[in-house]
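Below is a filled-in request sheet from our internal design queue. Each sheet records the structural input a requester submitted and the sequence that came back. We keep these sheets so that new team members can see what a complete request looks like end to end.

REQUESTER: design group, bay 2
PRIORITY: normal
MODE: inverse folding
CHAIN LENGTH: 87
BACKBONE (tokenized):
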């Protein structure tokens, strides 16, 4: 169980770091980053692609964080069940 908890904790940390990186990219793009993605008159397709990629990375990080948190919750529940059985 400890191994699963360590894996979940590592996954949560990695997801958090990925989220921070994506948020920094979006912040660097400026306050109107979402408008830039939807605006067809943007001059730099690369900038638009970077913002879209950052939003996808943000969503992926959120999903990974939630999945790893669920693993940690399940490990905690299992540990509680084991303690109940042994008590």
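RETURNED SEQUENCE:
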């Amino acid at each position: 169980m400890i191994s699963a908890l360590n894996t979940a904790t590592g996954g949560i940390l990695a997801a958090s770091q990925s989220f921070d990186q994506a948020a920094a990219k979006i912040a660097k793009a400026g306050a109107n980053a979402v408008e830039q993605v939807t605006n067809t008159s943007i001059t730099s397709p690369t900038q638009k692609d970077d913002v879209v990629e950052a939003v996808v990375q943000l969503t992926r990080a959120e999903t990974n964080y939630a999945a790893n948190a669920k693993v940690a919750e399940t490990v905690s529940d299992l540990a509680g069940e084991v303690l109940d059985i042994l008590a």
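SHEET NOTES:
- The chain has three helices and no strands.
- The radius of gyration is 19 Å.
FILED BY: M.R.
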